[in-house]
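Same chain as my last thread, 363 residues:
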Amino acid sequence: MTKRSWPVSRIFGVVVLTALGLVVLGFAGSFTQATGEGAEVVSSTSPLEGEDALADDEELDSRSDDPAPGDDSVDVAVGAASRETAERLPAALLEMAPSVETALLVDAHANALYQFENVEGTPRLAREYYVAIGKSGADKRVEGDEKTPIGIYFVESYLPGRTLPAIYGSGAFPLDYPSAWDKRLGRTGSGIWIHGTDKTDTELVPRSSRGCLTLRDRDFVELEDSIDITHTPVVVSRSVQWLDPGEAQRSRGRLKAAVEVWRSDWESLDTDAYLSHYDDAFEADGMNLARWKSHKKRVNASKKRISVTLSDLGLYQHPDSPGLFVASFRQEYDSDNYRSVRNKLQYWKQTDGGWRIVQESSR
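reply #2:
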């Protein structure tokens, strides 16, 4: 990603004004002094924008050393990314599930939102958008820190603009922050949205929300028809890691193989083999590994047969931890005395002993 810079025309204008002796007035009118990370000089105790959504209904005076998105340099920088990654794939999107038509990937450092289309499971870059993040940057930890979270999320719902304050422009897509993984890590807050804006391009500075992802309103309108509620994943990273296709295929193959062996061992009623896939730090449904083992041994002892079918598999590398991977799938479980269907998220990590599951949750 190339660093954004001031357009030549603006620099030339400043030089001319300097020569005419007007530099003080011209320069002071065009620039503001950044006040630090987030660069926000108006504070609010309102818990909106979820916590974070709707708090932006107060007029903000955000400032930043970065160029405003009205500058041509912003779009040039994002365009350069597409050329750089034309033959590479994002590490965070190893495989798109069949039900997922669109996936969104955010590079918080570059203020870029990438839209990917599903081509037989492989993500293909379709569009790139400028996106503003939290006033205090990324890596949200606690409620009210005005940061955008890093993680894997899904669009929960749609809020039309007519139901929201004008600052949200044409509408908003709430995300499912905090995720089960965020909760495990003790992260708090709520109300993280992707939304439009009533700001002009030059007013929408790179860090200007209380944690949400803010698009120029025309970009939000262009994007919104591609979003599928509950299906569209949104991966927010500090910066995007790109892989060559061969490396991506190898990573995808290893994780798919681990998931399949887990499924097969569960279905075989070999409880010890099945439980060998779980890490010592495993958590699910309020149970640690010891309670999980006791529960599964008791359940399996009552079964004569088990059938486990997985479908709609999606594979992700967690942007907050290079060794952590996430599998999303539809699980159909059938036994001689019980049947269930659920959508599951399974968190895997690579250890010296191979792949191990550290968390399972429904979604």
